[in-house]
Amino acid sequence: MNVNSDTAKNILLVEDTKSYQELMSVAFEENNIPDKLYIVETGEEALKFLRRENPYKNVPIPDLILLDLDLPGIHGHEILKTIKQDEEMQIIPVIIFTSSTQQKDILQSYELQANCYLTKPYDFENFLALVETSLDFWLHFSQIPEHRDYPESR
């Protein structure tokens, strides 16, 4: 991985499927990605994490969000809409990372201001390659604005 920054980034993965959570963790290890991966399983947990509500009061603001669409409770599109309508959170890049290839999901994601839409590969090697390539681009080549500090709990 091409790392142009000495500072590790914080990445929030919103994913309810344990096997994809484990694959992402392995992808970080296999690619020697120094960034910190936080994992939440539901939309409700994602919003609590982003708002730094209990039990997430001391978590950092993520530099990047990897968001699945098909989540229990709040659907990924609703989470994306909430993020992009929030003055403090809207600058965080959100990559839709899902198994859906449906055009309606892709279109709605971009209409709700997703920064990118990636379809999860089913084979391990392509999964690793996609994670490495996308994180390398988003965290080390693209320019992401620095966070505005927002209140720990709103």
Question: How is this structure best described in words?
Answer:
The chain has five helices and five strands. With 154 residues, it is of the alpha/beta class. It has one domain: Response regulator (Rossmann fold). A five-stranded parallel sheet has the order 2-1-3-4-5, sandwiched between helices. Helix 1 crosses helix 5 (124-141).
Secondary structure elements and pairings:
Blueprint lengths: L9 E5 L3 H13 L5 E5 L2 H9 L12 E4 L8 H10 L8 E5 L4 H9 L4 E4 L4 H18 L13
Helix pairs in contact: 1-5
CATH superfamily: Response regulator
Tell me the β content. Answer: 5-15%
Any idea what the radius of gyration is? 15 Å
DSSP strand tally? 5
Whole-number count of domains: 1
Instruction: Assign the CATH topology.
Output: Rossmann fold
Uncertain residue ranges? 1-5
Compose a concise summary of this entry.
About 40% of the residues lie in helices and about 15% in strands.
Descriptive labels:
154 residues; alpha/beta; Rossmann fold; five-stranded parallel β-sheet; 5 helices; 38% helix; globular; disordered N terminus
